[in-house]
Amino acid sequence: MNISNLFQFILGFILGVFLLAVGSVGAAYYFFNRMAAAPPKPVFSETVADPPETTPTSPQSQETEPETTANNDPEATEAEAEEEEAPETEVAETSTDSYKATVTWSSGLSLRAEPSQDSARLGGVDYNAEVTVLGMSDDQVWQQIRLANGTEAWVKAGNLQKVN
Predict the structure, then answer these.
(1) I want to staple 112 with a disulfide (CB 3.0 to 4.6 A). Which of 50, 106, 119, 150 is the partner?
(2) Which burial class, exposed, middle or buried, applies to 9 when counting CB atoms under 10 A from its CB (0-12, 13-18, 19+)?
(3) How many other CB atoms sit within 10 Å of the CB of residue 130?
(4) Alpha carbon distances (Å) from 116 to 35, 97, 98, 141, 155
(5) Interaxial angle between packed helices 74-93 and 59-72, expressed in degrees from 0 to 180 and rounded to the nearest 10
(6) What is d(CA 133, CA 125) in angstroms, rounded to the nearest whole number?
(7) Which tens digits make up the pLDDT trace of 117-126?
(8) What is the predicted pLDDT for the residue at 79?
(9) Which tens digit of pLDDT belongs to each residue from 64-116?
(10) Which residues fall within 8 angstroms of residue 120, CB to CB, at 6 or more apart?
(11) Is-contact 107 39, C-beta < 8 A?
């Protein structure tokens, strides 16, 4: 065996180990980045997707929509305005112990009709959604919340973080 063959063997071995290490680090980097991404938005079978008109994108769309309905049926528009204002007054009445919070459980929370795991499931609330906490159950295991649409339900305690 001459020196040239020995040199080729050592150089090939070092190059092979280097490529193996770089490939392993690249694969680990790829998988760790995939795991660090936010999870997909949960889909709950009991909930119905809100139509896009409930969350207008600009103030102009809010102004044009009531004018269109006002021309068709002014009484209906007044009734809808009263319904929209009603939950706000209820929040003000019960706001002595209530506070705003966000959902911290990454896959969202199940809404229950009563503070029990066996209670009927009313739907779900997404991760990082803002809710109003109304109170705690007697055993401090469940929290009663109100969603933005006025729905009141129970969720497991410890999965909400108070908003400053």
Answers:
(1) 119
(2) exposed
(3) 13
(4) 32, 22, 21, 9, 9
(5) 130
(6) 13
(7) 888 888 888 8
(8) 47
(9) 444 444 445 555 455 444 444 443 333 333 446 788 999 988 888 889 999 98
(10) 112, 113, 114
(11) yes
Q: Which residue has the tokens 């919070």?
A: 101
Distance CA 112, CA 120 (A): 6
What does the block give as tokens for 48?
């119905």
What does the DSSP 8-state code read for residue 73? -
Structure token pair of residue 9 = 């063997």
Tokens of 140: 């401090």
**DSSP secondary structure string for all residues of 37-51:** SPPPPP--TT--PPP
Which residue bears the tokens 């600009």?
Answer: 58
Each residue's pLDDT tens digit, 28-71: 999 888 888 777 777 776 655 554 454 455 455 444 444 444 44
